[in-house]
Amino acid sequence: MRKRKQLFAKNDPPEVIELFSVIAAMVPDAGGFDGVVVRSVGTKYASENSFFSGAGAAKTGGRWNPVGLHAIYASLDVITATREAYQNFLTFGFSLSAIMPRVTAGATVSLGKVLDLTDKRVSAKLGFTIGELIEEDWKAIQIGGVESWTQAIGRGCSVSGLEGLIAPSAQSVDGKNIVIFPKRLAKTSRIEILGADQLP
Question: In this structure, what are the phi and psi dihedrals at residue 27, rounded to the nearest 5 degrees?
């Protein structure tokens, strides 16, 4: 994994600008995505308006988005979605007294331009192995006031006009996640929650 020191600032360092240029060059060949995704959220975000807003990730930051960038995290299968939702329990152990209510829902998604990071050729062009992408401790890096490489990749995708990215799951072997940038959706793209009338 390449190393760099970069505080959140208006001006990006050369290595980030270079990364963004590589991502921008891949946009014309980026494929779309059509399928069903699964997302699990706490009851606070379980309303129809909030479920796929990306506002929660914008407040806290995530593996693929720095604070301030709206991002919707979902998985391509229910097992991966469950493991992602309970990743803290999987990492630090289960305590039944800490289990809080969650709501899991699916959505049909149609996007025009998505970067697939699970394709080794794509990650190689970015200068990373798939292992490096899922092993990066983005939380510790963010706490230190630095943007992680994975966050920079997500930001670069958004800046380049991509609607989302497909990424390997750090919690589920062979699992895949999709990260959607709702503010970048084209007019022809859509996210339709299955059973939306059953949400608050």
Answer: -60, -45
Q: How far is CA 169 from the centre of its chain?
A: 10
5 phi, psi to nearest 5 deg: -115, 120
Can you give the residue ranges of every domain in the chain?
14-184
Query: What is the distance between the alpha carbons of residues 79 and 155, in angstroms, rounded to a whole number?
Result: 27
Q: pTM for this one?
A: 0.89
Render the burial of 96-134: b for 16+ CB within 10 Å, e for the rest: eeeeeeebebbbebbbbbbbbbbeeebbeebebebeebb
Token digits of residue 43: 């009851």
pLDDT tens-place string over residues 152-174: 999 999 999 999 999 999 988 89
